[in-house]
Specification:
- The protein is 56% helix and 7% strand.
- The protein is of the alpha+beta class.
- The strands form 3 sheets. A 5-stranded mixed beta sheet has the order 3-4-5-9-6. Strands 1-2 form a two-stranded antiparallel ribbon. A two-stranded antiparallel sheet has the order 7-8.
- Helix 3 packs antiparallel against helix 6, helix 6 packs antiparallel against helix 10 and helix 16 packs antiparallel against helix 17.
- The protein is globular, with a radius of gyration of 25 Å.
Length: 681
Amino acid sequence: MKNDNPLLQKYTLPPFDKIMVRHVEPAINYMIDENRKELKDIIKNTKNYTWKNFFQKIENMEDRLQRVWSPVSHLHSVADNNELRKAYNNCLTKLSNYSTEMGQNIDLFKTYDIFSKKSSFKNLSKSQKKIINNSIRDFRLSGIDLNIESKKIYKKIQNKLSELQTKFEENLLDATHAWKKHITDKNELSGIPDSVIALASETAKKENKEGWLFTLEAPFYIPVMKYADSSALRKEMYWAYTTRASEIGPNAGEFDNTKIMYDILEYRTKKSELLGFKNFANYSLETKMAKSTDEVLNFLTNLVDRTKKYAINEFEELEEFTSRLSGINNLKAYDILYYSEKLKQKKFSISQEELRRYFPIKQVINGLFSITKKLYDIEIRKRSGVQVWNNDVEFFDILDNKGIIIASFFLDLFSRQHKRGGAWMDECIVRKKINSKIQNPVAYLTCNFTPPIDDKPTLLTHDEVITLFHEFGHGLHHMMTKIDYCGVSGINGVPWDAVELPSQFMENFCWEKEALDLFARDFETGKTIDNGLFKKMTKARSFQMAMQMIRQLEYAIFDFRLHLEYASRKDLDIQILLDEVRKYVTVVETPEFNRFQHSFSHIFAGGYAAGYYSYKWAEVLSADAFSKFEEKGIFNKITGKEFLKTILEKGGSCEPMEMFVEFRGREPSIEPLLKHIGITN
């Protein structure tokens, strides 16, 4: 079985051309069984524990399992089908059980705990100590101190949560793909960019239809909401999009996440209470930078207080403009983006569509690589002949200044059927040292941009350029690490509210003329963005930024309060709580039918439960970190080297505040972030 299963073969990169659904469960079964046997053997036969004869072996075990699971998990996100979904879900239960077993293995825990108190512990490296201390913390968070009956309950809870969170994401994916709008009257397309119309035509052809076919995927939804002159079309798409996976809408009840959300909250609360926490928010903060729920709420409410009046002014300006332009005195939710775009064009004579011509995707990628070369003295080269899951996917190597490959990544940029929406970075292979050799890190970088049509280049909006830079920042965090141990290598071991620092840091280069000149060139004339257009861009940067900030604060406060209060408010109604938060935070009225929470996968299916505040928390760090580059020069080699050495290379081996202070010379300030969005009070 092992010999004919590609997932169980020793490979440098996953053999995507050979992986079949039938390989998935046998591979996971085999790896879990092998790990269980090896763990028993290690514990039984090891005396005088050292890092090499015990802890390193545990790390190696977990890494081998991760290397088998990683391509399966990735394929589930980018090339889903019913058979793969079934195998994936079956494996999740097995992996959840295994993880719980490891976390509740008393012999394993005792070894870590006893060793941490020995004098030999002091001789370990900082990274090794961090791994052991993190492991002891995680043992306690996995219920190591529980009695036998409670451990069984914990295991059931973990399995159920794994199942529910996956189902939430699947419902959202299925609901998104279930809705389609077939248009045959060209008049309905007025205002929509030609590139989107072309994509809609291609989509229709694929289904043997005349005219144009629109879906709820980002390459369709966002441009329609921004540019479609048809209020009826905008309303219909907004309604379909904001009711996805709920009890109402065009597919009412078919992919309904309502009960799943409550079940997730219930099981999270049970887990946190079982472990001795008042609520899931307190449990969540055990692995965060923030030390208390009050600290998080004070941070968020302070931002609301600093921002809301600016957001009110922005919305009043939009209302006044819309009234003058169209006679509309009561802006609807589906009007906001449309008239905001018109106001932006009037104020700054600039639009996302106008800027597209400067951002052909290949050019942007090359520019991104040039920027990282300037910052960190690395070379990025495309490699051919690597097995991928789709013909659009490319593979690249990162080389140091001596020409040695130190990391690699897969780049999957385009939207397609059976691919999860959004953009993300994930681990394929983690850096670690094996004897004298280094296992180089490999990343998956995934976006959902409009695919090229009729041999025409894909032109990105400036917002999409920012998205690409953001995800590449995550990728650099994973790939540029110099840590030799999986547990704190790259993004591993990094507190969730610090993990967005490198990604948001990279976004800043999308607003710098010196950086843009490296890649922003008209795809027809080759001309760079001139000073006049750049000034318009920078002036427009703060356009409605307070409204955007408020919207993100709405999500963050809702998430945190939901997980903070559910334990004491068992009758808590999710919609009522969200309405409460909106009454306090927002300046734009949300329609009663809006079911945003039903598609809030960050908190119900991802890792951001009671942690969505992390985006704003890390944005403070990233803005302040970048302010040093603004002071010294954005391509200052010394500053670039300092950021590389103190942040990227150290991964999770140090506390983030310690690393930030080392880089910045002080603790973070909120002022650079507020300055970036035009708030100066």
